[in-house]
UniProtKB/TrEMBL annotation:
Residue stretches making up the D-Lysine 5,6-aminomutase alpha subunit domain: 5-519
Species of origin: Catenuloplanes atrovinosus
Pfam families named in the record: Lys-AminoMut_A
Protein name: Beta-lysine 5,6-aminomutase alpha subunit
Listed SUPFAM superfamilies: Cobalamin (vitamin B12)-dependent enzymes (SSF51703)
Top-tier EC class: isomerase
Recorded superkingdom: Bacteria
Example of a GO MF term: D-lysine 5,6-aminomutase activity
Organism lineage string: Bacteria, Bacillati, Actinomycetota, Actinomycetes, Micromonosporales
Keyword list, A-Z: Isomerase
EC identifiers of the protein: 5.4.3.3
Amino acid sequence: MAGKLNLDPSTVARARALAAEAGRPVVELARTHTTVSVERAILRLCGLTGADADGTPWVNRLTDRIAGQTGLEHGVLLPALHALRRFQPLSAPAASFGDGLRRLAEKPVDVALPTGRDLASARGTAARLARRAVRRLDAARATRDRLIRRYGDAPRRPWIYLIVATGDIHEDIPQAVAAARAGADVIAVIRSTGQSLLDYVPEGATREGFAGTYATQENFRLMRAALDGVSRDLGRYVRLTNYASGLCMPEIAVLAGLERLDMMLNDSMYGILFRDINPIRTFVDQRFSRQIHARAGIIINTGEDNYLTTADAVAEAHTVTVSQLLNEYFAHEAGLSDAQLGLGHAFEIDPDLPDSLRLETAHALLARELFPDAPLKWMPPTKHMTGDVFHGNLLDGMFNLVGALTGQGILLVGMMTEAVVTPWLSDRDVALRNVRYVLHAAGNMAEDFVPAPGGFVQRRAHQVLAEAVTLLERIAGESLLTAIAHGTFGIMRRPPDRGRGLSGVARVSDVYYNPFAELLS
């Protein structure tokens, strides 16, 4: 790997080997544990939908009852199917099990763990339901591929990624359509504040979010249908993004796969660091959610940009590289390809620092060279946006230019009103004009841009990579969970025996059975 930075291939290989060494114990942890959200995701895949009159999803009602009676460690599907025999034979068509599971959730029926022939029968039915669910994910992926062939894809890289967030799905839709018509290639519907800490997924179309719109299956369906319509009009497929993070990460991944979302925010450590969700809960949920994303052809977006909003973007630049390497390892292990890795990084260096633009360029190009086939997600400045909209627009222009020079894959549109207001339509229009001008003017300048051999950019990239290797050596030696507990990432200290959602984690028993484990591996 010489490339534009003349990186030492043995150093890069060493970094990847250390990331794998640090990640393997966490993968083993995920393989041997389950969570309430994984079990609810399995029920959703088997067709259980809807909520009771109070808005509590049936998957929560059934999971909580079974976990309380037979224990979470055995999983919920086998006891559920065993009890379901009172309402329908297990030989019934697979499509009927959603209604059957709902009837079971509605009634105060005692459940038990099957044994002997009953256990074998329940396992056989579970495997049959899982094969049907995976065929639904495959069908959604095939539809995406067919529409991209029919309508065409975005005309350039990086893809222009724009956020809408009114709190009302019926107001988000016209804003998203307008953004697509103004040049956006990817629409992200940011979630309502606090949804990541809800231990259930709301139901239906929602109109009362806070600084964002609730992630629900119906909201996903409505927005995807609207973007399909504008894709047909524009002659290019417009992608849709949401968030598979927080306490319901696997369930939201399932809903995204079924409703054909194209990208999902899905970082390995964001929920731990910035939402204080228990580390073990997060890693178990994350692995299953990424297996779903892999099968559904969804691109994940990781959250390393957030580290640079709490820590110094120069001094801690190597922690971004370390996290990217860990995210890459976990993603590959879960079955994601390089083309599905929207690894995050950001333009967050203090603009008053001398050579700040050269430093940003070095960091962005290092990510590009380390992950040449990944659609890297390049995030705009936020930390040093002061409310001076003219200065903010200039910073966004510099961010756009570095994105073009270094060949980033996904460029989130920066807002000059960052830190002032939730963007107005007029703000988005100005920001999109900024992006369009820079990308049009720069063209394929990434082809021409080569840093001077031994110059500032190369030296800085080498320094960050060396610091990343040193940190990875420490993490591999002491364990990733210990490093997280010591505040290594984003200066947040998160020990493994604390955090939200810990009570919903269990080490699996010898009879535990997840029928998706083999199908998705």
